[in-house]
Write a structure and sequence with these properties.
9-stranded mixed sheet, 24 strands, 15% strand, transmembrane, ATPase_P-type_domA
Length: 924
């Protein structure tokens, strides 16, 4: 997965295109599409293994390649993007709420004789749908590439030969082999199991691994079905051979996802765009009625009035509205890809813009992620790793014996184990130092619940048990203290164990990770189990260091400046966590809690505690799940980082799940919405800031699109009331929309955000950016646009004919909107090209004979252009002075949602999260 994400990051455009997955309206259609979860009633867990294989028409050698190919066509695959053709995408892009309005307007325009205008409406609508459809096809191709790159692999036996396939290629009857930390690729019936334990927390919420056994079992609930393995769960320990019984939507996870899709709520931005779309229709109809009524009052023919009214109504509808946010998300995702953050979920950009809590791991995020042996301590105190004496080398040798061996084909599972092995090799220490002819016989692997790794080995003196793990876990199991390299041991009482704990805290106080090392002789025939790890001889401590990134502190400061609460989650000792967090978080005394302390709290106590905590030490995966759930109960929007298979449940549950691509396991990568390829906190912070800053661009673009149309309607209605007819024809209004809406609005939406301070970013987000702030900007732009056009038209009427006045009004209408666009976009290259290019096109149309007449214009002279430029300048300069006068109150809906959020979290920061809740990540 890390190589795949690196390739995707290098591909920039392809990776960025992923964010544009199916488009705004396409996503809504997919979520609303009925999907009945398939019901599977076969009691596989009850059947004996021969009966299971007979029912599936399979055997222990697996299916033949021909049988697997034949069965592939029989079952659907979940998650893979469908391949859509361009014609199909074009038709689906037309399925948005504005298309019927535009079609009705075009039909009315043709009915009253304006066939050319009707053709223009149809052409603009078709081009917009064609562009959207083309981008959808490109997106789905990119998604297919991503699925191929990051798909979870499965070792399958086919025709008696093992091979590696993707999980999507599995079919019922396939025989799969699983080992530690493998993700279960489908629902399977267990055939063989050796010490098998499975983490099912992502499916059942059970935090501890569940032991599995091939024997048939009576189980009404999936937690009781010990003979079954379910898709998405992770093998914690042991090995297994299983037969696939369900894939795709037929799995337990597949049915849950299908049910969730049926009830997926509408997000904040979707609700706001739907509201704007609905509002534009009555405004268009109202303006048409006003124009028609004004014409009748002035005695103009009904046919002429009706044509003008219909043309105004059709032209005033914002055709590009469904397309605008998609373009902004696409541009933001491309910039994120350049930063090394790959978007894998179409709603991730919106959720990033709303996140106000970031929970992150220490290792590899705050630190370099390169653990190294720093020191070894015994009764004489610590010595650096490069100056170890014989007693401390004996402690290191015992720690090495309690370290799982590195497989040649894959890196060691835990970086601490790798640090011990590399440090021992550099110090010239081997596993047989102090244990002649030692040979490993059994092992008890590390798990968060037991917090140690134990190994038994055979020596010339008999069996030897070696243990390495967290001090608080190991010290509870020691009874004596033995000087390394000697047989002399002294009994330890409670006071002695307490002093050892203080020593561990002193070592951890320098920001090091501390491990305790202990051993004891075993009796012949004694089996290794958790109960056997008792009555140990304490030998010493191992200190491991991970350099802190110098850029981590400024990155966290950016987050705090933007109102995002940060919480460091680590499995380290509290003293280690405190030593690292204090300088990076710029806090003299960061508040540190531990996972065991959280276990003693109920949900209400946890909800009260979390807003005040900076660090959670000794944090295990099930603690992360509780933390995410607690923040969500408080109305907060949570971003959670992780890299391990056990982190997958919390990543999936969070509003924004972030996987660390360099160190991440397939389970974490598959569960994430965002994959950070370099594991750096700065990249995560940049992604959060990009998500927030995008909404400032979206608000400005929507203000251009809708505010400009509002100004056009206002100017047309007012002039109609005065003269009985609109100065602008339908073609001219269409021309205005083409020159001011399409290119300039898109340029503003996709521009790279600049100059956004943390205080300003705090005010951004779908709810706030698209709420009263957007309404204010739309009204302000509408007033400025109408004022510029009105001044120009009045001046031109005084100095010339009506056709010339209409052309001057057209030029001023376009020019005023473009001037505001250039003011908003600053020196952005795309905005300058779009704004100045549109102005040049307008001037060419007006001044070119023939083309000018087609658009009901007349070439203008110096006086007319002077009136136009003067009106544009006056409106643009005076307009901002009106902004302080336009103080808008929140709508009742916004006020209610903000009040609910404030009550939930007690601060104003939560108001942004309360509006338009993201689809729960577990549903995704």
């Amino acid at each position: 997965p890390d190589q795949a994400t690196a390739r995707a990051a290098a591909a920039g455009t392809t990776a960025g295109t992923l964010a544009f997955t199916l488009g705004h309206w396409r996503a809504r259609q997919l979520l609303a599409r009925p999907m009945d979860p398939p019901v599977t009633t076969t009691p596989w867990h009850l059947m004996p293994i021969p009966r299971v294989l007979e029912r599936l028409d399979a055997d222990h050698d697996g299916l033949t390649p021909e049988e697997a190919t034949a069965r592939t066509a029989l079952g659907p695959r979940r998650g893979e993007p469908t391949r859509t053709t361009l014609p199909a995408a074009f038709i689906e892009e037309l399925a948005n709420p504005l298309t019927p309005v535009l079609a009705a307007g075009a039909a009315l325009a043709a009915a009253v004789g304006s066939r050319t205008d009707a053709a223009l409406v149809a052409a603009i609508t078709g081009i917009s749908a064609l562009v959207g459809g083309f981008q959808r096809v490109r997106t789905e191709r990119a998604l297919s590439e991503l699925f191929a790159r990051s798909a979870i692999g499965a070792r399958v036996r086919r025709g008696g030969t093992e091979r590696l396939v993707t999980a999507g290629d599995l079919v019922p009857g396939d025989i799969v082999m699983l080992g530690p930390e493998d993700v279960v690729p489908a629902d399977c019936r267990l055939l063989e199991g050796e010490g098998l334990e499975v983490d099912e927390s992502s499916l059942t919420g059970e935090s501890l691994p569940v032991s599995k056994d091939p024997a048939p079992v009576v189980g009404a609930h999936i937690t009781q079905r010990r003979s079954m393995l379910y898709e998405g769960t992770t093998v914690s320990a042991g090995r297994a051979v299983a037969v696939v019984v369900a894939t795709g939507p037929a799995t337990e996870v597949g049915r849950s996802l299908a049910t969730a899709r049926q009830a997926a709520p509408v997000t904040g931005v979707e609700a706001r765009l739907t509201s704007l779309t609905r509002s534009s229709v009555p405004i268009a109809l109202g303006s048409a009625a006003a124009v028609a009524g004004a014409g009748l009052l002035h005695g103009l023919p009904l046919t002429e009035n009706l044509a003008s009214a219909v043309n105004l109504a059709v032209a005033s509808v914002p055709e590009g509205l469904p397309f605008l946010v998609n373009a902004a998300q696409l541009a933001a995702a491309r910039r994120l890809a350049d930063l090394g953050a790959l978007v894998r979920n179409p709603r991730t950009i919106e959720a990033l813009g709303r996140a106000d809590v970031l929970c992150f791991d220490k290792t590899g995020t705050l630190t370099e992620g390169n653990l190294q042996l720093a020191a070894v301590s015994d009764s004489g105190g610590p010595l650096p790793a490069d100056r170890l004496d014989a007693p401390r080398k004996a402690v290191l040798a015992a720690a090495l014996r309690a370290t799982p061996p590195a497989r040649q084909s894959e890196p060691m599972a835990h970086q601490t184990d790798r640090a011990v092995s590399v440090g021992a090799r550099r110090a010239g220490v081997g596993v047989r130092r102090g244990a002649p002819r030692w040979r490993r016989t059994d092992a008890l692997p590390f798990e968060p619940s037991r917090a140690y790794h134990a190994t038994t080995g055979r020596t010339v003196h008999g069996p030897l048990l070696s243990v390495k793990g967290a001090p608080e876990g190991v010290l509870d199991r020691v009874a004596r203290r033995r000087a390394p390299g000697t047989g002399h041991a002294t009994e330890l009482d409670a006071e002695g164990i307490r002093k050892l704990g203080e020593t561990a805290e002193e070592l951890a106080g320098a920001g090091r990770r501390v491990l305790a090392v202990a051993e004891r002789r075993m009796r012949e025939g004694e089996e290794l189990s958790d109960e056997a790890v008792r009555d140990l001889d304490f030998l010493g401590f191992i200190a491991i260091a991970d350099p802190v990134r110098t850029s981590a502190g400024p990155a966290l400061a950016r987050l705090r400046e933007s109102g995002v609460q940060t919480m460091m989650l680590t499995g380290d000792h509290p003293a280690t966590a405190d030593a690292i967090a204090a300088p990076i978080m710029d806090l003299p005394e960061p508040k540190v809690c531990t996972g065991p302390e959280l276990d003693e709290m109920d949900d209400a106590e946890l909800d009260e505690l979390l807003p005040t905590v900076d660090v959670i030490a000794r944090c295990s995966p099930h603690h992360k799940v509780r933390i995410v759930q607690a923040y969500q109960r408080l109305g907060r929007v949570v971003a959670m980082t992780g890299d391990g298979a056990n982190d997958a449940p919390a990543i999936r549950l969070a509003d924004v799940g972030i996987a660390l691509g360099r160190r991440g396991t397939p389970a974490a990568t598959a569960a994430a919405d965002l994959v950070v390829t370099d594991d750096r906190l700065e990249t995560i912070v940049s992604a959060l800031m990009e998500g927030r800053a995008m909404w400032a661009s979206v608000r400005a673009a929507l203000a251009i699109l809708i505010g400009g149309n509002f100004g056009e309607v206002t100017f047309s209605v007012v002039t109609s009331a005065l003269t009985g007819a609109t100065p602008l024809s339908a073609r001219q209004i269409m021309l205005v929309n083409l020159l001011t809406d399409l290119a300039p609005a898109l340029a503003i939406a996709v521009r790279e955000p600049t100059g956004h301070t943390g205080e300003r970013l705090l005010k951004e987000g779908p709810s706030r950016s698209l709420g009263a702030a957007l309404t204010k900007e739309m009204l302000l732009r509408g007033v400025i646009t109408a004022a510029g056009a009105g001044l120009a038209w009045t001046g031109a009427r005084v100095t010339g004919r009506g056709r010339r006045a209409g052309t001057v009004a057209l030029a001023a209408l376009v020019g005023t909107q473009l001037a505001q666009t250039l003011t908003t976009g600053g020196l952005d290259r795309h905005v300058l090209v779009a704004g100045l290019g549109s102005a040049a096109v307008l001037a060419a149309i007006i001044q070119t004979p023939g083309v000018s007449q087609f658009f009901d214009c007349t070439p203008l002279g110096p006086v007319a252009w002077a009136i136009t430029l003067g009106s544009i300048t006056a409106a643009t300069l005076v307009g901002p002075l009106l902004a302080p006068l336009m103080r808008l109150e929140r709508t009742p809906l916004e006020a209610d949602q903000a009040d609910q959020a404030d009550q939930a979290e007690g601060t104003a920061e939560g108001a942004d999260a309360a509006d338009g809740a993201e689809v729960p990540a577990a549903s995704r």
